[in-house]
Design a protein that fits this description.
Keywords: Coiled coil. This protein is an all-alpha fold and 512 residues long. The protein has a domain of 265 residues. Helices cover 81% and strands 0% of the residues.
Length: 512
Amino acid sequence: MTLQPLLKRRNSRSSQWRVWTGVTSQQPRSPSPPPGHGGEEKRREEEEGGGGRGESLEQAAALEAAEQQMILIHDEYKKLLREKEDEIVQLKSVIHQEHGTAQPDVDGQMTRKDLAVHKEMVAELRQQLSGLREQLTDKEKELKELNGRAEGKFSRLKTQAKTKIRELTAQLERMREEQGASPQLNLSATQVLDSSLLSTGGEEDSGASEQLQALQTQLTHTQRELEERKREEEERKRELEERKKELEERKEEEEERKKEEEERKEELEERKEDEEERRKELERVREEKKSLQQQVDSLRDKLNVSEVCVGKEREERVRLELKATELEEELETQASHISSVKQAATQLQKSLTEEQEHSHSLQLQLDQIQSSTTSPPSATNVTPGSQDDMVGSDGVPSKPPVSPGPPDKDDDHPSTFTPVMASGDRGSLVDMEQEISRLETALKQKDEQLSSFKTILEQTQAALDDARERGRNLAGNLENLSSEQSLLTQRVEALSLELTESAGCAGDEQRE
């Protein structure tokens, strides 16, 4: 950065600064009043205080140079601040252009990576701004301190000049008294000079007035010479200051050139580093893309396998459902058969009880027959046992047995037999025993059929329970497989979205 535009505004800024601080490098000279109105007194004061004012002017010039330098520094820092703010705006636009933040995503927002880079750059720029603001505040503090020092120095110089002017006026009054002026008039040298010039009656001494006029002319000459020397010295100082400023500007320009070259080198290095980082990022994105593609392929294979397994499970489920329906139908038939078997069993039980009752009655008849065969009864001689048999248990004589006629051929279960048997009744007794044995075997067969029907019923019930349990297990397996399939589909969709995003990022980076 050059200071040429700053130097063009130097005079206006320095004058404004002098107005603010109340400091002026050259005191404005008052117009010379007409003779006889105090003009010669001021000239004498200037001539007498010429030496002190020379020193004060040198100090004032030095202070003015320092003030101008501080003004330049202040303006330079202000310009630097503005340039840095412009650089921040430019860097923001460059960030938008380089990192693709000017092109928003589908949702209208930046990506996370671009946001992170943008935030880092903004934080760095804010740090630079804060540093520049701190430097500006420091420079403003230094300017305020220099203003205070300058004001103190000028106040001191003013007091010193006033004391010197008073001393010179006292010396002039002494010289006047020594030369024969009237001591009664307690007037200053300028007032005496004015009174000597205005006197018309010739009351004062003409020699003293001539000497005062000669002193006045000498003072004016010396004052003019001093002013010319001061002007020459000021011009030389200005030339020296301009040369110094030019040298400083050249040095600053050289330093700025060096800084610009260093910045260019740093920018080139940063660009190289950015390119290397981009290449590494591209390689990493490609590797991630390959790994994601492999994961997607493996998940697709798993999904296909799971779909095949699900199809098989569905077929198995349909087959088992069909089998379960068949088993249920078979169970229904078995239940109907069992109900019929139960009915048959009840009928068998009834017939069995009837047969048992019939066998019991037959046994009673057999016992009666056996007792009648061992002791045949007679009408005249009746044994006590037969008499007892004729009498019931309650002491009432029972009726004599009446021999019925021959049994009906259609009656399978005769209820009563005659207790009195002839010799040919032994065959009927054997037939009765055979009938009893036949009934017992039939009863045993019916019991065996009933037990077999019960076992078949239990087996069919157990098979039905197993089929139902297997159907429940298959339903649970199908639900688990369907949930796994949904999870796999979701994961495949997520991986496909990631693949598309990574492909888009890689394409953007390749375009950059």
